[in-house]
Each structure stands twice: as structure tokens, then as C-alpha cells.
Amino acid sequence: MNTFTETTNTASTWGLYEQMRPQEIEAIQEKTPIAYLPWGAIEYHGNHNPTGLDSIKAFNLCKDLAEKNGGLVFPVVNLAANLIKSYPGVNFPKHSIEFSENLIRLVCEEYLEQLVAQGFKIVVLLSGHAGEPHLTILKTVAEEFNNKYPDKRFWALAEFDILPNDLLVANHSAIGETSLQLFYAPETVDLETLPKDRLITLELDAVSGDDPRLATIALGEQIVTSFVKNGSIIIEELKQKYL
């Protein structure tokens, strides 16, 4: 598995919440009360990618942000609505675990309330799944919490929200997501399962976006580098205002 290697801010400390003892958590939180909440999905991503792609991507991007900016990374929330299994015009009923939009809203509300109670002042909610209205629900709840707790900041996003369109756009198991997966967990990707003699389609291959056969580790690294750079600028601005 590749890890992002840009020089980190050694003055910051970070950690994986569920792997730390209370005193370790509190030491980090006292210095940098930022929570990173990766929000994933168990969803069919074709034969060439794992069902946990959204979760793997969200967790690792959060981890890279935390290493750069400090804070605590929470376990992935593997709950998602609006998966490919219910997308009109396609027939991929297996390998996706789908939940209701109402449940997504409820879990998000309760999770953010718990993070408030735990004393976090900035919450970064990164959704690896961009199905709609799943993503909009998370962003809406975050904005409601910004209004409810004006002394704190809740930032919900998908990775492509802070990247130029010529680098990454919303896609499903296409070149962008596949390149990220190749960067973070190349052993889970098998491009040889994709057909070589025809166009890649949503209906046949569960791919929405540009051809995943062109995916590379180098492109994945470029996406990660740009994401961490742009995300860190925003987090630094939030630190100045809310910490």
C-alpha cells in the first residue's frame, strides 16, 4: 500500500482514534481538536475494483490530511444510500449494501452530536461515495450543524470538490477512482478483468466516467498530492478561525 510522502508539519500530532488510549487521544485533542470522519460504502465497483473502494479512499485521504494538519481520524462509516444497485437502467443487484436516506441523515446527525460532545471544534467529513442525494444529505447536515454551533466548523465534502475538473471529477470506478485505488491499495485492483475489445460502459462494467484501463498509480499520486495541498489550505484557514 502506498502512503503519501509529502513533508508533514512536525509541530502537529495526529492519530487513529480507535487505536489510541484515552490519554493519547486527549493529548492530541488538546493541541489540535480536529476530527476526520471518513464516510464510505460497500458498493459494487465492477470486476476490477473492490467493493470497499469508497471506504478505502475516504479513510486514506483523511489519514493523509491528518498527518499533514494534525487531529484524529475516526473509523470509516460504512453506510451509504443511492448505490449502483438502485441506479435506473442498470442491473447490478449484488455486492452492494444499501441503506435508506433517512438513516444516513440520522446517523450523520447523531455522529456529529457525539463529536461535539467529545470537544472537537473542527469536523472534516469526507464522503468517498458521491451518489445523490447521499452526498447532499451529508453536506446539508453539516451546514445545519454550522448554524447550530457557530463556534465550531463542520466541513463535508467529496474529494473532487476541491480538485480541478481536469484532474478529477465525480466518477464511479472510472480512471479517477481506479487510479486512487491503485495508489492506496494496488493489490486490490485487477485491470485485466476489464474487456480489451470494446468500449467500457456503465451498463456492462459498472463504470461511469473515463476509461479505467488508463488508470495509473502516478495519476493516483497526483490526485492525492493536489487534494492534500488544497485541503490543507482550507484546514489552516479553519484553524485560524475556530481553534
TrEMBL record:
Keywords: Hydrolase, Metal-binding, Zinc. Its cofactor is Zn(2+). One of its GO terms (molecular function) is hydrolase activity, acting on carbon-nitrogen (but not peptide) bonds, in linear amides. Signal peptide: none annotated. Pfam families: Creatininase. InterPro entries: Creatininase-like_sf, Creatininase/forma_Hydrolase. GO terms for biological process: riboflavin biosynthetic process. Belongs to the creatininase superfamily. This is Creatinine amidohydrolase.
